[in-house]
Here is the input.
Amino acid sequence: MAGIGGIGEYYLAVQALTPAEKTSVPVMTEPAVKSSGLPFGMWSLIVFVTVLFLGMVTLMATKTRNLKRLLMVLTAALITAVVPLGLDLTLKPTSVTIRAGAELVPKNLVVDEVTQTGFTVRWETGVPVIGTVRLGTDGQTFPRTHVEAGGAKTTVHKLTLTQLRPGETYYFEVLSHTTWYNDGGQPLRVETLP
Here is the structure.
């Protein structure tokens, strides 16, 4: 089949695709324990001073002037003070917004080598990802998914789709990282040769 609209030997060419879904998906992990307003560093200081004070009072009440016991109290105070700091590091909420970064957007997509039973899709990404295409015949559902041979991450992608029916119209979208891409909200369209 000749090129469309002066795009040379290609059946279809698209500069850059757009996400299939219009919204990005925010993912928020809330901590299991919430602080009461004071930073965990302040809690560490409070715990340290409290344990140190109680240890010193105990040593003074028993009239013990043993250096080993004083070091033991100091060590216990330091160890218990570390717990709030550890909680601070492990319980901080993590916020991730999944968006299509410019380097993930499939660019320079071309469809060529169209035959009666298949076609080839080529595209580029700015970072290495596994090339994947989903394919259907109605433009709404995509029951077939094709992954590049070997499933290796790369920036230059080539997928040859085979075992298709002659003269049939196929619609497809391209996966880059976690987002499906199409052409301005519409799946890309290819018709196999009759």
